[in-house]
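Internal QA ticket QA-208
Title: Verify multi-chain structure generation after dependency bump
Assignee: T.L.

Test input:
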Amino acid sequence: MAERGGERGRFGRGFGRGDRGRGDRGRGRGGRRGGGRREEEEKWVPVTKLGRLVKEGKIKSLEHIYLHSLPVKEHQIVETLLPQLKDEVMKIMPVQKQTRAGQRTRFKAFVVVGDGNGHVGLGVKCSKEVATAIRGSIILAKLSVIPVRRGYWGNKIGKPHTVPCKVTGKCGSVTVRLVPAPRGAGIVAARVPKKVLQFAGIEDVFTSSRGSTKTLGNFVKATFDCLLKTYGFLTPDFWRETRFTKSPFQEYTDLLAKPTTKAIILEDLDKE
Amino acid sequence: MATTTTKVLSPKEADIQMMLAADVHLGTKNCNFQMDRYVFKRRTDGIFIINLGKTWEKLQLAARVIAAIENPQDIIVQSARPYGQRAVLKFAQYIGAHPIAGRHTPGTFTNQLQTSFNEPRLLILTDPRTDHQPIKEAALGNIPTIAFCDTDSPMRYVDIGIPANNKGKHSIGCLFWLLARMVLQMRGTILPGQKWDVMVDLFFYRDPEEAKEQEEDEVVAAPDYGVSDYAVGALGLQSGQWSTQMADAQWTPEVAAAGTIPAVGNIDLSQTPVVASGDGWDAAAAPPIAGIDVIQAAGWDS
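Actual output:
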């Protein structure tokens, strides 16, 4: 909220031309997430095969999807599988384009989504109104949810609490390095990556960053990239040969072969 | 080349003989390094010869994969080139797959908001170079790809490449025919011993002129009598030569009712209460109509 206040001030100084009022009003409205409005989205009609399977309840966890590298195209899939997903707007950045008739401003929203237990997502969306940008970026964040691997600093007692090894991620000029830390160290990081790591469910970590970390977009993307790599790092526990399982599209091919709502609608019309 | 020995060929050898006749073994003047393993030799004029034994093996492998898909509607067979379109349609008809002949709309495999959005489990292509768009999209959507690859075809993202000539129409037709037959044999629809009653020629591409000629031949043969009668009747009316028409008494009222009627024709018509033109609505039709009216009237009264 303090950050938003800063933005408002910058707005007034940046451009005193018309139409800024729309943006301010939008932000005021967009600050609250629509708690009551979500009722409409209950009627999710899945378009993809994966969506159908998730709606039927055949797929119980995101890990199943990760295992078969299936692309997730509908954000409701993630919502169904991770109901305790929280989101947070990291920054609303106004970006401008020069036109004949002045500047055309749009708002870029950075949203981090996570359940605090090994899943994070990052979404970036630009739109003419703040509320639309935030909504869009929440959806994109949910689509990009990634599993985060956690490990131990030493002595495997209790649950994993830190990164399994030193990992580094890069975006633009910003590089972020995560280093395993002992219990109780907490997240030793700047405000921005701290948020992301909290959402990921990492309890203790040392960080080191380089480059222009002022650019929040790149900073946040760099930490996200870093967390992506935690499961990309080959450690001896992965040496065993994989036992391949059937892809859910193959397992549930009979269920998927059944016609979707289009056929049902036609039937209704015939009956009438 | 006349073969003096008429020994019985094994099914594999019979297939290979057919492939040779269709020029499946002829590649192009260039060879992609990944296709080296399938090439037998380079001819003196620069064309690479494909080892048909390996082609047959890869066809079997592809057929096994196709037969393993439980729901054949999840298979997409595609050809952008005209030479492969007929083969693709026929193949899909006999296997139960989904054909796409002609342009592949970008985004059919990736854009879930499109109406033509399809998530297949397997993709079969005629040419990786011209059908490169579906290959790219299949890679994004975890879809295994089978393709007929020539010696110079790019093999990127192609999971099963069947080395073959994909330039000639006979070659493409022959390959799809063989593949279809193999799949049906594996499924058990065709017994291995028996010959498939569908001809190879059905899978060959037909030039539009060639196709039109064939159709014309068929049409001219069938209803000769009917056409000539109508023609005579219509021509007679337009020229106003009623004398010739009086002989064909049946036709005149009907044809007259359809078009503009001269004075003579009107008198004829007034006798028979005919409103719409139809077969058998002559003077003979009048009593039955009256009869029907009477019956209907009776029905209403009671």
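Spot checks passed. The first strand of chain A starts at residue 86 and ends at 99.
Status: verified.
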